[in-house]
Amino acid sequence: MIIVDFIKRHKVISIIAFLVLIGLLVLIVRLGALKITDVSPKNGSKDVLTSTGINVFFNREIKESEKAQISVDISPQEDLSFLFSKNQLKIVPKNPLKIATNYSLDVKVNNRKIFGFSFETRLFTQEQISKEGLLQSRDDLAFGEAYKKFISDFPWYLSLPIEKSAYRIVYDFEKKSFRIRFKIQVSDTAENNLIKQALEDLKKIGVPEPISYYTIAAE
């Protein structure tokens, strides 16, 4: 009986040891498997440059023997080249990416997908943006110079409109005159007094005499 019990216990210990060993082997395999920890551009990114580089970062350094096992599918289809550096895979499109396009990428190891991500390119190429930016800068500069000259010729313009309880004054460039619009119904005598007051307001902001103007009655 003692011998039988010893054999049974020995078998149990052997089985337990075997299971522990299997578990350790599985753990080692899992820890050693390539996993993706980060990507660039980030999944779901918008407004990505068409000249952008695509980077995939793994949980450990990529072995030389593993490089041939790694592949990347991209949709829409693009010609890609791959550069490995330690734990990084740099995916370089051979041509600029298409504008305003949603790209999806699947990273595979031994033809098995281990990660997927997508991003959307911007509406314009970097060249177009630079060109438009230059044109905009030129337009801004031209506008700035014209605006400076305008303010130099009409320094009082920044003080318009003049708002009073009885009237409002603006400048009519088509008629080259100031427009005095009455806000209230007034008699002829009161209207003349308000016009005199309005002209004094214009003198105060630097409008030279003689002052050209016309009036509009209140509705």
Automatic annotation (TrEMBL):
It comes from the Bacteria. InterPro entries: SbsA_Ig. Keywords: Membrane, Signal, Transmembrane, Transmembrane helix. The chain crosses the membrane at residues 12-33. It holds the Pfam family Big_5. Residues 33-108 form the SbsA Ig-like domain. This is SbsA Ig-like domain-containing protein. It comes from Candidatus Woesebacteria bacterium RIFOXYA1_FULL_40_18.
